[in-house]
């Protein structure tokens, strides 16, 4: 699954929020949402919308140079 998420009813401490506004929902995704997301990813893969690992590493390297 390309996007990290955690399922289950485990109690977790309050999460740190990044950005200007807080998220509107902190609940884990429902199983239906996970299945639909996976179907969407599989549908989009043939169109080349996801970058390869090498492209990601190159982008991270360049962004790192730009921020310093």
From TrEMBL:
Residues 19-66 form the Poly(A) polymerase nucleotidyltransferase domain. It comes from the Eukaryota. This is Poly(A) polymerase nucleotidyltransferase domain-containing protein.
């Amino acid at each position: 699954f390309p996007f990290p998420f955690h399922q289950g009813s485990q109690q977790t401490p309050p999460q740190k929020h990044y950005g200007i506004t807080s998220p509107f929902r902190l609940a884990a995704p429902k199983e239906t949402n996970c299945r639909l997301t996976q179907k969407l990813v599989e549908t989009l893969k043939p169109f080349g919308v996801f970058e390869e690992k090498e492209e990601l590493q190159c982008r991270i390297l360049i962004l790192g140079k730009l921020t310093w």
